[in-house]
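Hi all, long-time lurker, first post. I run a small reading group and we've been trying to get comfortable going from sequence to structure in the token notation. Rather than ask abstract questions, I figured I'd post a concrete chain and ask someone more experienced to write out its structure so we can walk through it together at our next meeting. Sequence below, copied exactly:
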Amino acid sequence: MSKIIVALDGFSSCGKSTTAKRVAAILHYAFVDTGAMYRAVALYFHRNQVDITNLEAVADALEHVDISFQFNQQRQASDTILNGENVEVEIRKMYISELVSQVAAITIVRRAMVAQQQKMGKKKGLVMDGRDIGTVVFPNAEVKIFMTAQPHIRAQRRKLELLQKGEDLPLEDIIENLRMRDEIDSNREEGPLKRADDSIDLDTSFRSMDEQVDFVLAQVERVKRENK
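-- Answer (accepted) --
Happy to help. Here is the structure in token form:
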């Protein structure tokens, strides 16, 4: 079977990006971290003091946002490049996490990013994770996975990730940030976070990363067998 598109959707801190990266590497597919794209936009807006309630200002700012990905040999993963600057570390900080869902909820921002994402997927052979990949970006993706995890486990994972980046925040603050992001992501007008009718659920609460990757690869193999 020719190359396909694998769409991983779900809540933050469920392991989507790490799983997607590893699946893409095993399949020799391209990987696109859509969350990083929205984080890069949020960083640009923050730096340039863009009023996100002013749609004219937002539209003007988007004209000056160029996002690409560059493979980092040391990390064996792609770094996010914003207007020629490597912002991979900066966009993972908590102040961006507190802003990104509000930015991603803006209709013109989502439409601009979705257009870029769909362009990336024209040749297929792609693993993409996000909130609306299987519902809006690639509704015809051959494999759709919806990932979830228990809230306290998600918060613990996020705390560990922040600690590894030098940020030590109270677990209560992280739980509140995840709750706020879930609410915004699930209720926004454009491309809300929701499970596609034909997606397969994957609860990662008590699964190792290897088990998560194997689960997704098994769905890829199933689809390929069924379409031989």
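A couple of things your group might point at:
The chain is about 50% helix and 15% strand.
The beta strands are 5-10, 30-33, 67-72, 77-82, 85-86, 126-130, 143-148, 200-203.
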